[in-house]
Design a protein that fits this description.
Blueprint: H1 2-9, E1 17-22, H2 28-39, E2 42-45, H3 52-61, H4 69-81, H5 84-92, E3 97-100, H6 103-112, H7 117-121, E4 132-137, H8 140-143, E5 166-170, H9 175-191, E6 199-200, E7 204-205
Parallel strand pairs: 1-3, 1-4, 2-3, 4-5
Antiparallel strand pairs: 6-7
Bound molecules: 2'-deoxyguanosine-5'-monophosphate.
């Protein structure tokens, strides 16, 4: 009887969904890895190159495949939808998720190519909205000094997405400084995930 009461009182906190966005070589993948280790979180990456769609995207990014801007945009979005149910289930089970890129960069990259922004946002509408998003940024000239920069098709894009729980981080700071800044922003949310609303892109309550 006592066990049943305790179980009822102890509400399972849902997991926190954290997204890291940034230009190539901004260090977001390093931060995503460190953060997922620290929080014992599941790390997901977009594009997810392990799926059939991901392989096509990977070919495109390496310059091996010609595709219209519209087609590749829809493929990137479909690649995110492939993980949607799995992400939702894990969050509901209390697993924190760290996403290395998400829909925000998708919209920014494609809009920078000249596609209408509302058109770019439409296929991602309904995906789970991250609880908190970090955008690692620095002048392109600085990032391009880092090895391997610009090997793939997108190397230069402006990213200006304004919304709550969206934090810009100076990518030129040290790995430890950036990690500390990120942890600082999420610590309060981690303690109170049961109070957070699960929202959908773009901003609707789930
Ligand atoms: P990464 O694996 O993080 O290096 O990302 C590969 C590239 O794909 C990167 O230059 C950004 C781009 N990208 C990621 N998502 C999208 C998207 O949804 N749409 C477009 N057009 N580009 C994207």
């Amino acid at each position: 009887m006592e066990i049943i009461i305790q179980q009822t009182i102890k509400k399972i906190n849902r997991g926190l969904f954290i997204a890291l966005e940034g230009l190539d070589k901004s260090g977001k993948s390093t931060q995503a890895k460190l953060l997922s280790q620290k929080l014992n979180a599941k790390k997901v990456s977009f594009p997810d190159r392990t799926t059939q769609l991901g392989l096509i995207i990977s070919d495109y990014l390496r310059g091996n495949k010609n595709m219209s801007d519209e087609v590749i945009h829809l493929l990137f979005s479909a690649n995110r939808w492939e993980q949607h149910t799995s992400i939702l289930k894990q969050l509901q089970n209390g697993t924190n998720i760290v996403s290395d890129r998400y829909a925000y960069s998708g919209v920014a990259f494609s809009a920078a190519k000249g596609l209408p922004i509302e058109w770019c946002k439409a296929p991602d509408a309904g995906l789970i909205q991250p609880d908190i998003t970090f955008y690692l940024t620095a002048p392109i000239e600085e990032l391009s000094k880092r090895g391997d920069y610009g090997k793939e098709i997108y190397e230069n894009s402006s990213f200006q997405y304004k919304q709550e729980n969206f934090y810009k981080i100076d990518a030129l700071k040290s790995v430890d400084e950036i990690q500390a800044e990120i942890l600082n922003h999420i610590s309060e949310k981690l303690d109170n995930t049961s109070l957070l609303q699960q929202k959908k892109l773009w901003k609707q309550v789930l």
